[in-house]
Write a structure and sequence with these properties.
mainly beta; about 0% helix
Amino acid sequence: GDQAATLPADYTFVGADNGIHVFTPGVTFQTSGIQFLIVTDINDGNIAGGLETIVDVGPPAALVFSYQPFTTQAGAVMSPPVEVMVIDDIGNQAFGFSGQVSIAIGTNPSGGTLGGTTTVTATSGLATFSDLTINNAGTGYTLTASSAGLPNVTSDPFDIAHNVMTRDLAT
């Protein structure tokens, strides 16, 4: 599972410490938000202390698809909407990011055209593409998301199915 923090090694105090020791390297929190650190003597659990701290998110470092595209009929709006998240270097959502994120077809097995709004402004680090369509059926399409200063990211492969038209035939 994901670790909340990277902790330093245990330390055995010596008399010259006078009860003080600086851990190097110290604690590195891996998750933003309010974090708690509790220090306990491994020989006497009654000796303990703790602190609460707020961990800020790092600067934007990458894009990830938080909602991947799914198989959709040709010309139909992709649902649920495709969503791209901006994250810091340890995977936290970059809530302060409000830049532009663009999306385009990456792998294009059938010469499809991407319709809908292909550049959106992120809100709290999330870019939601709510009206994307691809007009040609095909297997193995991908989408590529981009934003200035961040590496591009490619979606998982997905298919565009033939648009099946039905009509009633009167007898």
